[in-house]
Amino acid sequence: MRNKQNNELAVCGLAAVKKLEKKDSERIRRLYFTEEVAPLFGGLCKTIAKRKGIYNMVSDASELERLCGTVHHQGVVAMIYMPEIIPLDSDITERWIQNNESAIILDHIGNANNFGAIVRSAAFFGIKNIVVPEDDSQSAITTSSYRIAEGGMEFVTIYSVRSIGRLLEALAGRMARIGADVRGKKSSREIKTLCKGKPAIVILGNEEHGISTETKRNCDDIIIIPYAGMSHGEKEGPIDSLNVAQAASIIFYELSQ
């Protein structure tokens, strides 16, 4: 849940808060927890106390639900300033290319759970850069996506871009522009070969419409995750497609090999 008045975001869930503590405890402005999980946060309470911050053990878990807007808080809520989503510019993409860093574009994936799961997988496979359309940026980082990411938010940077098509045009020949789509002609297993030694920028679309037509026009290759029967020439699998977060994990794995 976002506190617009204080420009704060509620981070809840044991894994998310513990990773936040380990990576950058200074970001935690206030901490609330139940008696059951109190032993897990003694060190963090001391750290917060040293800088005269606020921490409080609540007597009723419903107080945490009120703070974060969900019953899935696992007994702890940390309030942080709303994370910044950085507008993407050419200096940043130039750094990706120089450092051989791949990136992910999420083409209007509005579901917070899917977004959080993709962030978790990206962090697991060492992919640090995630791009969202500017009109999606306000809903990208939420309490739900932070919790589902299980601490992954601390290891990625979220960028926003006005036009995915123009971004891909600007990266032509400099990064391997690879879209994922159920009508792809090449296998996700080929992704490292398709990169030809360049860092990849992989585009994932939402489950209803996939990646946009403009985006496809600006891709070097469109890949598909092989389904059961594909190797035998069957034109479709038992179901239409994977959940986008599941698909992302497979593609990130192939990209990391």
Short description:
The chain has 257 residues and is an alpha/beta fold.
Total count of helical runs of at least 4 residues = 10
User: N- to C-terminal separation?
Assistant: 37 Å
Q: In sequence order, what are the helices and strands, one letter per element?
A: EEHEHEHEEHEHEHEHEEHEHEH
Topology, number of strands: 13
Strand content: 15-25%
The overall pLDDT average reads: 91
- Judged by helices, strands and strand pairing, the structural class is alpha/beta
Q: What is the topology, as strand order, of the major beta sheet?
A: 6-9-8-7-12-10-13-11
Helix percent band: 25-40%
Main sheet attributes: strand count, strand direction, barrel closure: 8 strands, parallel
Q: What's the overall geometry?
A: elongated
Radius of gyration: 20 Å
Low-confidence sequence ranges: none
